[in-house]
Every structure is written in structure tokens, then in C-alpha cells.
């Protein structure tokens, strides 16, 4: 029924998804608000809260001693600073942000009650923090709005226990993602890696403006490091005007849409599967060299590689056997223990006998897939767990093993797995 309603919604929406026609007065106004006009079509729909803050905050680009906290303002000159305090107690610091003006020229209108992404002028804020203590979690709050706050944890020393979360294909406008987060976040991850398809204009039921309030619990829990999926390029300029404006430079090295982060001696690499990852491609060269360099470090434990389109899946999307044939041995040689895939809206776990555990984690809230459509692919007898259910995966890393817990939107544990770790030197 949900799929039928979506098809109806999509077919009804042709021609109104992303044009720049006059928006009228949707969203209204109030005595404590200012309205933001684009000057291109007379749109005056954006209601800017009295605080001047429109999205966030969130943290990214975190290593042992530094981090960045970003938020978006819809009015210039808001109080651009955060108060930051160690979670375990300590002195408060106030760190100013740098404000960058950005002009959005098109309004994206959803169906239903979600707010449009109004054209207009926005102001990205970034507070760059340095001199932090390794392995320490910090709380922060915006000076301009005490209700907008979050936390992040600096990279932990190798061997120190930590927890992280993986999720993919989050379409919170469909009403399930908030329950997934409510189920998984109590396990207190340091940070979240996302397998891509962060937001879905094509569901016609959400915008970035509606995405942020629903996803704020995840953003406030810890740093956010997403992969790029096909839904980040649904509309012209969506990647640059939204996904990368918000989450660009989430990690280190690489390029605009691929990067790495690390914590606890574990290295996390993401590549952008909307661009080539075949042997000899810039991303493949970077990934191979990065994995080899990380694996030679004295503090190295293992790697996680995450990306959007799967190398292996028995569900209703394409696989990529050529990339698997090339990258599989690289992963095995460099002690990649987990390959996280998305795009197929369900869950899969493959245990191939050696090398990484391949996981498909695309159940973050988008319409669920047929996870068995391609069950006749030759490697599908290595798929040891699967299901068309919504979920996130929480990974707990300690001195002896990594434990994965797959939690659905009702709090039910749908799968668990573990990988043993070599003793610390
Ligand atoms: Fe996708």
C-alpha cells in the first residue's frame, strides 16, 4: 500500500519538484520571524526563526585533537559561536564560527506537509576546534540557541573500546527513521557512518528542511561521516548545494566525495560509487594506497570500507562483480573486516570464509526492497542472514572482538555477529 501511495504521489508531482516558480506564502510568518526572499521570483516563504538558525548543528572532520561543528543560519550575523565542555566535566570554552554566505536559486517543493527547501540566502557556520584531548567526548551548544546542541568524541587511542553506528538509505519523511534512531542511539555510538542516499527528494515527501529536525538526534549523538548515494544527485546541483555544503570534508584525505576517518586504531574509508571505483580509477588507487598505508601503521587494528552501491547483493539492485574481483583481495590483504554497502533497502550479511564480512545496510527508512530477487547469484549461498526490515547496525569494538547488533525500528535485535581481533601489541 505504501509503495502504491508513493507511485501515486510521484505521478502527481511531475513538474513541480524543483522549479523556481513563485512559492506564495506557504509557511506563513510571525512576529518573531524574518522572511528571506530570493530576488528571482519573489519567493518569500522562508520563515527564519528569531534565533536565525535553520539547520543543525552537527560535527564532522574529527581526529584525535580537532573537530568541526557546523550549522546553517537563515539570517546573517547570528551569534556565531559554540560553548564546548568535556562530557566528563571540565572547563567550558567558547569557540567562534566562520560564516559563509550561500545563495540557493531554486525552491524544491515536496508534497504533503514537509517544508520546501526555499531559495534564498543561507549562512553556513563552521566552528573549527583544535587542541582537544584524544579519546574524549565533548558536549557543545550554540550560543545563539541553547536548544541546538550535540556531542562528539575525538579519535580514541588504538585499542581503546568504542562504539559506532552504521545506517543507510535514510528517508525520514516516510516515518520510520526516527524510530530506528530511537532504538539504536541509546547504545551511545561515538559517531555514525552512513552508506548514502541520505535524503530523498524523489519520495516527494521530504526536503532537506524536513530531514534535519528528524535526523537531529543522530547528528547530536556524534560526528557524521556519510557516503554519497544516487539520491544525493537527484536534482541539478543537489550534491554541491546540499549534501556537500552540509557534509563535505566530513573526513580526511581523498577527494570531494571520498575520504577516511579513524578511531581506536580502526580506519574507515568511503568511496563514491556514483563515480568509477574500477581498477585504475582515482578512487580505487586512493583506496588501495590508503588501506595499505593504514595497515602498515603500528597502531592499526582493522579497516571498515563503506559505500553506497553494493559489490554483492541478492536483492533487487545490481551487484558489481568486477569491482569485487579487484577489491576483494585488496580488502583481504589489508585486514578489512567489514564492507558496508547500502542502496538495496534491506539487510544482508555475507560470510565468504575469508576476508571481510560484507553487510548490506540499506534499511534506514526508504521503501523496503525485495531482498531475494537475485537469490540465484552464485555467491548467495554465502549470505548467512538477510531480511526486508528497517534497521541500523551498532558496532562495539573492544580489545578482543567487534560485535555487531542489527536493531530494527521497534527495538528488536534482528541479527548479531562478531569478528575476533588480534591481541594488541
Ligand atoms: Fe541508492
Tags for this model:
2 domains, 425 residues, alpha+beta, Immunoglobulin-like, binds fe (ii) ion, six-stranded mixed beta sheet, single chain, Purple Acid Phosphatase, chain A, domain 2
Number of domains: 2
Mean pLDDT: 89
- Ligand types: fe (ii) ion
| Strand order, sheet with most strands | 14-15-16-17-18-20-19-21
The CATH homologous superfamily of the largest domain is termed Metallo-dependent phosphatases
The main pleated sheet reads as: 8 strands, mixed
Q: What name does the CATH topology of the largest domain carry?
A: Purple Acid Phosphatase, chain A, domain 2
Query: So how many helices?
Result: 6
Account of the protein in words:
The strands form five sheets. The protein has an eight-stranded mixed β-sheet with strand order 14-15-16-17-18-20-19-21, with helices on one face. Strands 13-12-11-22-23-24 form a six-stranded mixed β-sheet, covered by helices on one side. The chain is α+β, with helices and mostly antiparallel strands and 425 residues long. The chain has two domains: 35-152, Purple acid phosphatase-like, N-terminal (Immunoglobulin-like); 155-420, Purple Acid Phosphatase, chain A, domain 2 (4-Layer Sandwich), CATH 3.60.21. It is 16% helix and 33% strand. The chain has six helices and 24 strands. Helix 2 (177-184) runs parallel beside helix 3 (208-221) and helix 5 runs parallel beside helix 6. The structure holds fe (ii) ion. Fe (ii) ion binds at residues 197, 229-231, 308, 343. Fe (ii) ion is lined by residues 197, 229-231, 308, 343.
Amino acid at each position: 500500500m505504501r509503495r502504491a501511495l508513493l507511485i501515486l504521489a510521484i505521478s502527481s508531482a511531475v513538474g513541480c519538484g524543483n522549479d523556481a516558480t513563485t512559492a506564495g506564502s506557504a509557511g506563513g510568518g510571525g512576529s518573531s520571524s524574518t522572511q528571506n526572499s530570493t530576488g528571482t521570483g519573489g519567493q518569500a516563504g522562508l520563515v527564519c526563526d528569531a534565533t536565525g538558525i535553520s539547520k543543525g548543528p552537527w560535527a564532522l572532520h574529527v581526529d584525535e585533537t580537532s573537530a568541526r561543528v557546523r550549522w546553517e543560519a537563515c539570517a546573517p550575523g547570528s551569534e556565531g559561536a559554540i560553548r564546548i565542555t568535556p562530557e566528563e566535566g571540565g572547563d567550558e570554552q567558547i569557540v567562534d564560527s566562520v560564516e559563509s554566505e550561500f545563495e540557493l536559486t531554486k525552491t524544491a517543493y515536496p508534497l504533503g506537509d514537509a517544508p520546501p527547501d526555499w531559495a534564498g540566502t543561507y549562512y553556513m557556520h563552521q566552528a573549527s576546534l583544535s587542541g582537544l584531548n584524544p579519546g574524549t567526548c565533548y558536549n557543545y551548544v550554540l550560543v545563539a540557541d541553547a536548544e541546538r546542541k550535540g556531542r562528539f568524541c575525538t579519535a580514541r587511542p588504538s585499542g581503546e573500546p568504542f562504539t559506532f553506528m552504521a545506517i543507510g538509505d535514510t528517508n525520514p519523511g516516510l516515518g520510520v527513521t526516527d524510530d530506528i534512531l530511537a532504538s539504536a542511539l541509546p547504545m551511545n555510538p561515538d559517531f555514525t557512518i552512513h552508506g548514502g542516499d541520505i535524503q530523498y527528494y524523489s519520495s516527494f515527501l521530504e526536503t532537506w528542511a524536513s530531514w534535519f529536525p528528524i535526523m537531529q538526534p543522530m547528528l547530536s549523538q556524534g560526528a557524521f561521516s556519510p557516503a554519497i548515494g544516487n539520491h544525493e544527485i537527484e536534482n541539478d546541483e543537489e550534491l554541491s548545494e546540499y549534501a556537500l555544503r552540509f557534509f563535505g570534508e566530513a573526513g580526511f584525505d581523498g577527494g570531494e566525495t571520498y575520504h577516511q576517518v579513524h578511531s581506536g586504531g580502526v580506519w574507515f574509508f568511503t568511496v563514491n560509487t556514483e563515480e568509477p571505483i574500477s581498477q585504475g580509477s582515482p578512487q580505487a588507487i586512493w583506496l588501495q594506497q590508503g588501506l595499505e598505508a593504514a595497515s602498515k601503521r603500528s597502531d592499526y587494528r582493522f579497516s571498515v570500507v563503506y559505500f553506497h552501491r553494493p559489490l554483492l547483493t541478492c536483492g533487487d539492485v545490481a551487484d558489481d562483480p568486477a569491482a569485487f574481483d579487484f577489491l576483494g583481495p585488496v580488502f583481504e590483504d589489508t585486514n578489512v573486516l567489514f564492507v558496508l554497502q547500502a542502496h538495496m533497502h534491506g539487510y544482508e550479511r555475507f560470510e565468504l570464509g575469508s576476508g571481510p564480512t560484507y553487510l548490506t545496510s540499506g534499511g534506514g527508512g526508504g521503501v523496503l526492497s525485495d531482498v531475494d530477487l537475485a537469490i540465484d547469484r552464485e555467491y548467495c549461498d554465502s549470505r548467512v542472514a538477510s531480511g526486508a526490515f528497517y534497521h541500523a547496525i551498532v558496532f562495539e569494538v573492544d580489545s578482543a572482538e567487534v560485535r555487531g547488533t542489527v536493531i530494527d525500528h521497534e527495538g528488536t535485535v534482528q541479527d548479531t555477529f562478531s569478528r575476533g581481533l588480534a591481541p594488541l601489541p
